[in-house]
Amino acid sequence: MNPSTDDLAPAGTGRARAAKRRPAPAKRAIDRLDGLLSGAVKTGLWVWVAMLVVLTVWVVVTSLKTNGEVFTDPFGLPKSPQWRNYRLAWSVSGFGQAAFSSVTVVAASALLTMVIATPAAYVLARVNRRSADRVITYFAIGMGIPAQALVVPFFLMSNDLSTFMTEWVTGWWDDRISLALIYVVLSLPFTVYLLTMYFRSLPTEIEEAAAVDGAGPTRTFVEIMVPLARHGLVTALVLNIVALWNETLFVLIVVGDPQQRTLPAALLELYNTMQYTSNWGGLFAGIVILVMPMILLYLWAGRRIVQAMTQGAIK
Amino acid sequence: MARSVGGVRGERDRIYVPYLLPALLIYTFLFIAPAAVTIWYSFTKWQGLGTTAHYNGLANYRAMLSNSVFLTAFRNTLILVVVGGAFVFALTFLTMVVMREMRGRSFVRSMLFVPCILSPIAIGTAVGFLLNPDGALNQVLSDVGLHSLTRGWLGPDLIFKCIIAAVVWISTGFYVAIMMSRVDAIPEDLYETARLAGANRLEQFRYITFPLTRDALSTGAVLWVIGAVKTFEIVIAFTGTAGNPPIQARSAAVEQYLAVTGGVSGTPELGSAAAIGVVMFLLTAVLVVALRRLLRSEAVEL
């Protein structure tokens, strides 16, 4: 028996004895209450799940309705599915452009984050130096600093960068490049931390064998450790993709031209024009365009996402 | 070319600096340093690009304490963190009581998680449409004869309560996942023994599940605080960016966004935007330290 089970003794022996000493009807009443409560909670959980499913289905169905149907019959089926809602959202309301911005900015910044964070995490996990622990803590602090503490300097820096590049270097600048760079910086602390924990969980024998066989440290890292850590790397990549795909604050602040903004901002923009255009079917098509890639990603890597987000959090 | 393991370690030490340096420099100069510069900006009066910043000491902070709009935004954020947090963790605990032995539990768990990976803007737009004065919820309420229950859900009186409810609804699944992944690690025979001794589910939760998940609770609570202080998107999605969101609905992050962009027609106030950022950081830090103290416990080893 280990100490923890002693701590738990009241749950077993002591409690049980107390329960037995309690007059039987009282205990039975409590147990009935207990049963009632858990029944209620279970029902509540299923209702919660049902709400989610209904809301999702409702959004998809609404995205296929005419404007009239959206209001006269909010919970019915459309007479004929209005696929043109999607066509219009894509071409007229700018979701095509926004999807392009989202995909390029998110892909570029998520990949660049990995390229910078992976080598750092590897040496932090493997080198036995006291400074390594301090550096890990230093990166972990970044996870607790709200992005709002960076809004003003990032706003100014992206403006300066744009002016500098336009006037001195290239003659043009695209705010989406600044946005991607900001995303790399914002993703770095979490990614370094998560990957360090992951590399630590990997066995050291293989790389040591490789090194004894004559592979230098760089070759060992590129040809052995990166493939070996594939699972953890993909997980970190997916988590960053999810977070960046949904990011809205810095898009609104950094990217001046609404035409260049990503999908969440495009949806907001369309929502704001609703009182003039009332293209409600198109609005819901926009919601589907924004949300569908994440749902597909979740269907593909759901277990991995949940595991990394929760266990990465606990460690 | 055989080398010893010690030599391998030595070689690995050689790549330590070059491998670490890019990440360390970027993080230091583009994350930590700007965060520190924010503190400096917060002591200035600065009305945006093209104007100069003037040092004005603590004026931004003093203004925050006397300006009712700022105070409302911070009170809202605090209410969201505390009240929203109470709901999130109450629901999580209730779920932990039953989920271990529930039929379809892994399905329910993965479904509850879905809202946390979806854009709050998308969720807010869809739910906001349901909650509009002439939206579907009020229509359904009057159709089933509950006309007295219809209200302006997104009107000034109720909007912040709706925002809290939405945040709770979106994020609870994440905390359920965190806590349940810890519950999974508890050996089944502890529950078996407890059941044989006549302990009901609440007692099992009280004496087994709760004490053995304390460390995960402490982490979960910290993550909640860090996330909830930043609440921004859902407010914007409920109120839109076309006009300034009603004061009653604003969180600190929304207030800061308005200060940076200048709102609809006003001038930007970069100095006070920086000050809001600093206060949000302090709020996070204080709450995290307090929670760590409050929830500190010796880890129960199994």
Descriptive account of the structure:
The complex is a heterodimer of chains A (315) and B (302). Chain A is mainly α and 315 residues long. Chain A has two domains: 3-62, no CATH class; 84-314, MetI-like fold (Orthogonal Bundle). Chain A contains 16 helices and no strands. Chain A has helices spanning 3-7, 10-21, 24-62, 67-72, 84-91, 95-126, 130-144, 151-169, 175-201, 205-212, 217-228, 230-245, 249-254, 263-272, 274-277, 280-314. Chain A is globular. The two termini of chain A are 26 Å apart. The two termini of chain B are 46 Å apart. By secondary structure, chain B is an all-alpha fold. In chain B, helix 10 runs antiparallel to helix 13 (270-294). Chain B contains 13 helices and two strands; from the N terminus they run αββαααααααααααα. The longest helix of chain B has 37 residues, at 5-41. The model of chain B has no long low-confidence stretch (mean pLDDT 88). Chain B has a two-stranded antiparallel ribbon. Chain B has one domain (67-294): MetI-like fold. Chain B has helices at residues 5-41, 59-66, 68-99, 105-113, 120-131, 136-143, 159-183, 188-196, 201-212, 214-229, 233-239, 252-261, 270-294, and strands at 44-45, 54-55. At the A-B interface, helix 1, helix 2, helix 3, helix 6 and helix 7 of A face helix 1, helix 3, helix 4, helix 5 and helix 6 of B. Chain A: Belongs to the binding-protein-dependent transport system permease family. Chain A: Keywords: Cell membrane, Membrane, Transmembrane, Transmembrane helix, Transport. Chain A: It comes from Catenulispora pinistramenti.
